[in-house]
Specification:
The protein is of the alpha/beta class and 106 residues long. 43% of the residues lie in helices and 21% in strands. It contains five helices and four strands, in the order E-H-E-H-E-H-E-H-H. Pfam families: PTS_IIB (PF02302).
């Protein structure tokens, strides 16, 4: 499997930045080849052609329909992060959720 490109988004990119760092650590421990970056939700369109998965902060659930319109036609898996691990910035749980969600599509 080639490197998986993941974009995390939250309102400003700050909290998702901490989550991305924790996810990178968890992915490394699991020997998963992932590039995980965090940005503001306003930047999704700038990255849509480069990513395989988009993880959205749970507080942004209200923009999921808008995101679906943005990614229309691109093979991007959209995942709404769970409050349980997002609140604690649990990168391991987030990586597990990501992997499970991608396997559901296989």
């Amino acid at each position: 499997m080639s490197e998986l490109n993941v974009l995390l988004v939250c309102g400003s990119g700050a909290s998702s930045g901490f989550m991305a760092a924790n996810m990178r650590k968890a992915a490394k421990v699991k020997n998963l080849d992932m590039s995980i970056v965090a940005r503001s939700e306003s930047e999704i369109e700038n990255y849509i052609e480069e990513i395989d998965a988009l993880m959205v902060g749970p507080h942004l659930e209200y923009i999921i329909d808008e995101i679906d319109e943005i990614i229309h036609g691109f093979p991007v898996k959209v995942i709404l992060m769970k409050k349980e691990y997002y609140a604690t910035l649990d990168g391991d749980a987030a990586v597990e959720h990501l992997v499970r969600s991608l396997k559901e599509d296989e």
